[in-house]
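This part of the workshop introduces the protein records we will be handling. A record pairs a protein's sequence with a compact description of its fold. Comparing a sequence with its tokens is the quickest way to learn the format. To make this concrete, we reproduce a full record directly below:
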Amino acid sequence: MSAGAKQPDETSKPESLLDRVKNLRRLDFEVATRAALATAVPLIILVALGRIDWAAYASFGAMTALYGRGEPYRIRLRTVSVGALGLLVSIALGIGMSVSGASLLVLTLGLLLVIVAGLLLAAAVGLFPPTPIFFVFAYAVCAQAPTPPAEIWSRMLVAVIAAAFAWTLTMSGWLIRRAAVDARTGTFKTLPRQPQVRVAAVVDARVWLAIVQNVVGVLIAGGLAIAVGIGHPYWAVVSVVAVMPPPGAAHTISRAMHRIIGTAAGVVVTGLILLPGPPVGVLVAVIVIAQFGAEILVGRHYGAALLFVTPLALTVAHLASPVTVPTLLVDRVVETALGGGIAIAIVLITRAVANRRNAPDAV
């Protein structure tokens, strides 16, 4: 090598790797912080007003902040708005079911409507996550929570305000990022996700296969949970929707196993939190911290994320409709295993049918 040749920079590779790790963590931290703040502020206000019984509506509205992850702001405007609308419609439908004292048949029809519409909406607009899990969770909890007729509009208003606040937080980085790009500071990671509107998704066979799988799964799981007298049948339903792969995704078993094992561990964590009977302020802190931790981990390891998702879900449900903590924990484990097991069975059957159709004819 000649004396004038440029010497290789021995630190360039480690710095490049470090930069990539920092960028990934920066984006995760940004999303998790938004989600935590979107949840914390409405809940703190409700505590100050003495209306923590409205926490579920604020929490579900705040889930608006979970949409638009990694998207440029011109696209995020669309997806976050659609996500907020889907959540609010699900909450409103659930409240309506609760107030009207809807029969099991009507509740089930409402659930199926949320699943079908949620999957079609997610596929057509490119929502992430591409499943109706948050819509189903919001509908199920709100439909089960006792709602006095006089509080219909108050509870819905809480959800709308929380969603609007989360929407504002999610879009708030636009000016900051634009200034950073103009100044060429390189402070923020490039937002790589570019979902497209795909109206043809409403007639996509893969989307309708996912709809059939979810509908069959929730009907079986919910029916079995009711037949054996488990106190919270909607956990089995939510588990099926959470475990079932999105349209076009690989039909793997690992997600189901991660959910079952992760939920069991999460229930232990929740028990340690709820069994001592902590004050409301501690429960709000648990929800906020769990929201942050779930968003940090969900893109890395689904099972590990459930150590935070489970305390989040159980604490929100407990505030919405309090029951004895041991009953809540046992129901969660049993119904998650039930819903996860049914989802695994449906995935295996779907895979077997697909393999059989693709196999060459025997000679």
